[in-house]
Amino acid sequence: MSSTLIRGGTVVNAEGAVRADVLVRDGVVAALGTDPSWTADRVLDATGMLVIPGGIDAHTHLEYPIDGFTTRTADDFHSGTVAAAYGGTTTVLDFVKKEPDRTLRDTYLARRDTAAAKAVIDFGLHAIVPPRAQQPDVLADLRQLAKEGATSWKFFMAYPGTQMVDDGELLEGFELALENGVLPMVHAENGHMIDRETRLLLESGRTAEPFHAVAHGHDSEAEAVHRAVVLAESVGTPLYVVHVSSAEAAAEISRARAQGHRVWGETCPQYLAVAFEDYQGLGERAAAYLCSPPIRERANQQGLWTFLATGALSTVATDHAGFCLHQPDDLPPQKLRSPGYFPKVPNGVPGIEDRLMVLWETGVATGRIDPCRFVDLVATRPAKLFGLYPRKGAVTVGADADLVVWDPAADHVITAAGSHMRTDYNLYEGLRVTGRPVHVLSRGDHLVGAEGTFTGTAGRGAFLSRGKPHLF
Question: Which side of the chain, N or C, has fewer Cβ within a 10 Å radius?
Fold first, then answer.
């Protein structure tokens, strides 16, 4: 393999920053320092820039099935991972939802093969635990998947009748996770509360897209987080709460952590940088903003930032589930298939390419977080929690050379037209950012160059069989 020397930059890890050159050989970081005698096949000038570990997006939905597997999200494992790489993300962790005619493990293996044929960056898979009625013997599959490196399982507390598990199934799943060194994850919304509120809204004629946020109240999210924490603590398992959108829900995590519970919260850029006020008056085009939990009021954002700063929220992922507003050539109608009727709008928003830039602009550039905390949120903490550290998540000797040369002064405007995602709109349209990746390496391969050149090929991404989480 070729060698690369990144010269003149400041290496930023979660623990601190230091001026150092980075020597890459055989796909790993071979040395850090300032030795003028180092030579390499390729030299990248990082003067005035930062060298950070490649981002780890722990929550994506690429070619993810919806509507009983009759359609899927717009990005597949190729377009989605290309977009991720352009944005400075070098690892994604996606999800496996059991297919109706397959067991969970068989679905997992098929999805792993699909991703392996298309991904340009490394990837792992979380298993979604189905309700027991869908697969009575699913616990045996989960035990086997844990042995095969699926060391995180997701449980839905929402969507009764399709994906929601009851409290008994949660307890049983949490016990099994604890026995097998697996980190359980929860989609924490009270599905019955949401269904009731949706019914009341529809009965009163309030069907327009913005009422989706009313149906998914702060209380339904906070209640589910509280309940999940209590159930996890009763078993003794750690817990990871995905896509926390409400400051009230984040406060539940903060209280639990203050009491010594091992619980970690994830939030997303759309909750930090976009607000309900941005779409409440858009009519049917508000469909572009619909996801669950919803993008909430602007007043809610400050609470999320506070909990990010204090550590109650530990990671920032995207929950990338991109759909097009208008119908793509190869897929059925998506966001605008039921104008004026929010229950039929596919839930999910794009963002896999924008995560680092949006968080840098709204967090680091504003002084809310520093560069080390930024690295921890987007790379190091996900690597630790999901069994990838120290191979991933840090610029350190022996780690995979997943590296981003980051220009903190770069001027860039985010647009749908300039994106590599397949969606035909962008939540952050017109946002001017002052930091962006200029070089992206994945296991030493120079995927993205300073002029926007891309050299990654479909299938070069490696499947990651993950170890136990580092829970400290």
Answer: C
CA distance 314 to 301: 16
Interatomic CA distance for residues 58 and 158, integer angstroms: 20
pLDDT in tens, the chain (472 residues): 789 999 999 999 999 999 999 999 999 999 999 999 999 999 999 999 999 999 999 999 999 999 888 889 999 999 999 999 999 999 999 999 999 999 999 999 999 999 999 999 999 999 999 999 999 999 999 999 999 999 999 999 999 999 999 999 999 999 999 999 999 999 999 999 999 999 999 999 999 999 999 999 999 999 999 999 999 999 999 999 999 999 999 999 999 999 999 999 999 999 999 999 999 999 999 999 999 999 999 999 999 999 999 999 999 999 999 999 987 777 777 999 999 999 999 999 999 999 999 999 999 999 999 999 999 999 999 999 999 999 999 999 999 999 999 999 999 999 999 999 999 999 999 999 999 999 999 999 999 998 899 999 999 999 999 999 998 6
Phi, psi of 454 (to 5 degrees): -130, 130
* Residue 255 three-state SS: helix
- Asked if 96 and 135 count as a contact pair (C-beta separation under 8 A), the reply is no
Tokens of 83: 């977009």
Nearby residues of 57 by Cβ (< 8 Å), 6 or more positions away: 84, 89, 91, 92, 93, 317, 318, 320, 352, 355, 382
Residue type, 424: D
Residue 334, C-beta contacts closer than 8 angstroms, at least 6 positions apart: 71, 74, 323, 324, 325, 326, 327, 328, 346
Q: What is the pTM of this model?
A: 0.98
d(CA 276, CA 347): 15
CB atoms within 10 A of CB 107: 22
